[in-house]
Amino acid sequence: xxxxxxxxxxxxxxxxxxxxxxxxxxxxxxxxxxxxxxxxxxxxxxxxxxxxxxxxxxxxxxxxxxxxxxxxxxxxxxxxx
Length: 81
Hints:
Distance between the termini: 22 Å
Strand content: 15-25%
Radius of gyration: 12 Å
Number of strands: 4
Number of helices: 3
Helix content: 25-40%
């Protein structure tokens, strides 16, 4: 199924804060990839970027996978009305 906005949460640079990536986004389907503990591999991040994903960070926060997913959903829900 087509997704309107693809995001990949990563510790690698360059990335932009999640709230900034969502700033001008109004509606549609959003997919966010949350990696395993220790992050995605550089190859996995590169593959996602080549597929049109935007690399995002959670600012200074480094979260466990399960917490990262909940954090991402709460930010997405608060940013997209």
